[in-house]
């Protein structure tokens, strides 16, 4: 068969409704978002931890990725995007729980209570949305590294997808009740970043702090972190550009705005660091860029570039204050600042969305939508309502789930396991010399103890 000639394919393989360009772009965007989890997020977090916990950090991200795929296939997708199973006063709250193989797998994408259609294959859409779901619990890992019982994480992560992610995705992605009230989330500022940020705060509170002398970040390899950061930033082109649902004008707008907001936030954060600390750092630049990426996400394809620039400049100092001023006062050991960057960053972005949706841009995605700055204060109010609902719901359900898991297995590693790290948890380590050093130290300690006793 000549693969370059579509006429040689069976007609069923190239139906009339299929847009080859849109399908190609969304499959590409899916791959970019998957790369954001593994390897990008895994490397970013692993480099920021102590050497003895680097593999455990990678394992937690990788486990979330794999377990989410199973949950997504069995019932996660249908809960998030299929016909409504719970209606209250004409509002739709949750999808119907069915496995993928009980849905029209090989047809055109049709999702949500309104039966929204996209001219791409159904499984393309399922995979793209899976990539979003998979990265969300992975983001939470950064808040709870270096003390979390892996068995507890094995329970928490997949259940969280069902209890937190799926409902919020239905409310703001599929046409659920917040969408019905007028709230929009272009690409996951609420569904991914706010749920991850507020859930991370709850989980860190439930698990408790690291050992007292290890509260400060001790990044063992910033080059790994830089590699992960670069892949994550690049992957955001698919993250925000793919949510257009096809190869459309608003996809190009979203990609441009995404990078502009990130660059503006990164430079703003560096300027603040230099003013306050007298020097700039890579971690500061990365946090700034991530803050801009998070904040632009809920509006990426619905604002003009000048508003994207403002979003980056405004968000960076707010998240900076959250990291260096608010988080210490909360006395929560959010190890890598997940709540400030994703929770607060998502909140700022969500509120700015209500202000800045530009009708000249939204015409390419949701014609008629406009923010408060363009005369529609109702839009700001519904976006603010979505912020409150998603933040409180994510925090409360996640805290309750953590406590429930804690009744089944310990949430924390023991002190000895924490001191050993990867080898105690997984029986392997990225740095075998650490184990040899500790064995040698124990031998020396035992020898010294014997000498003391003999004296």
Give the key terms:
455 residues; mainly alpha; Ammonium transporter fold; two-stranded antiparallel ribbon
Q: How would you describe this structure to a colleague?
A:
The protein is mainly alpha-helical and 455 residues long. The chain folds into 2 domains: 16-209 and 216-413, Ammonium transporter fold, CATH 1.10.3430; 419-454. The chain contains 16 helices and 4 strands. The protein has helices at residues 20-48, 54-81, 122-140, 150-172, 177-181, 189-207, 222-241, 249-277, 282-296, 305-330, 338-356, 359-362, 377-408, 415-420, 422-426, 432-454; strands at residues 84-88, 91-95, 108-111, 116-121. A two-stranded antiparallel ribbon has the order 1-2. A two-stranded antiparallel ribbon has the order 3-4. Strand 1 (84-88) and strand 2 (91-95) form a beta hairpin. Helix 7 packs antiparallel against helix 8 (249-277) and helix 9 (282-296) packs parallel to helix 11 (338-356). The longest helix is centred in the last third of the chain and has 32 residues, at 377-408. It is a multi-pass membrane protein. Keywords: Ammonia transport, Membrane, Transmembrane, Transmembrane helix, Transport.
């Amino acid at each position: 068969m000549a693969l370059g000639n579509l006429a040689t394919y069976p007609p069923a393989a190239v139906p009339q409704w299929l847009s080859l360009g849109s399908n190609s772009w969304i499959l590409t965007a899916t791959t970019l978002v998957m790369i954001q989890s593994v390897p990008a997020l895994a490397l970013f977090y692993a480099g920021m931890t102590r050497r003895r916990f680097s593999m455990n950090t990678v394992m937690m991200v990788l486990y979330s990725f794999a377990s989410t795929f199973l949950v997504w296939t069995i019932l996660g997708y249908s809960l998030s995007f299929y016909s409504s199973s719970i209606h209250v006063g004409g509002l739709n709250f949750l999808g119907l729980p069915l496995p993928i193989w009980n849905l029209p797998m090989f047809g055109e994408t049709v999702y949500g209570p309104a039966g929204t259609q996209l001219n791409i294959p159904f499984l393309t859409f399922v995979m793209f949305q899976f990539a979003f779901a998979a990265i969300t619990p992975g983001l939470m890992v950064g808040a709870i590294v270096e003390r979390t019982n892996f068995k507890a994480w094995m329970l928490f992560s997949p259940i969280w997808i069902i209890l937190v992610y799926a409902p919020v995705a239905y409310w703001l992605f599929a046409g659920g009740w917040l969408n019905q009230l007028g709230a929009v989330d272009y690409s996951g500022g609420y569904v991914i970043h706010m749920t991850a940020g507020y859930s991370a705060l709850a989980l860190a509170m439930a698990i408790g702090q690291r050992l007292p002398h290890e509260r400060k970040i001790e990044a063992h390899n910033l080059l790994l972190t830089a590699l992960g950061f670069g892949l994550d930033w690049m992957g955001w082109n698919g993250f925000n550009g793919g949510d257009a649902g096809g190869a459309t004008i608003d996809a190009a707008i979203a990609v441009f705005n995404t990078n502009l907001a990130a660059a503006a936030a990164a430079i703003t954060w560096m300027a603040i660091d230099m003013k306050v600390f007298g020097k700039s750092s890579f971690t500061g630049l990365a946090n700034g860029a991530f803050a801009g990426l998070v904040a632009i996400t809920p509006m990426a394809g619905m604002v003009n570039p000048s508003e994207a620039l403002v979003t980056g400049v405004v968000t960076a100092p707010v998240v900076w204050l959250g990291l260096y001023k608010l988080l210490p006062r909360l006395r929560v050991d959010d190890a890598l600042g997940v709540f400030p960057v994703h929770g607060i960053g998502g909140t700022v972005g969500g509120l700015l969305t209500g202000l800045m949706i530009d009708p000249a841009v939204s015409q390419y995605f949701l014609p008629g939508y406009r923010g408060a700055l363009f005369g529609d204060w109702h839009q700001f109010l519904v976006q603010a309502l979505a912020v409150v609902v998603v933040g409180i719901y994510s925090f409360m359900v996640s805290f309750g789930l953590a406590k429930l898991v804690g009744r089944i297995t310990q949430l924390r590693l023991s002190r000895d396991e924490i001191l050993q790290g990867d080898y105690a948890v997984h029986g392997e380590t990225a740095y075998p010399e650490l184990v040899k050093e500790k064995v040698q130290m124990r031998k020396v300690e035992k020898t010294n103890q014997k000498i003391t006793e003999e004296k």
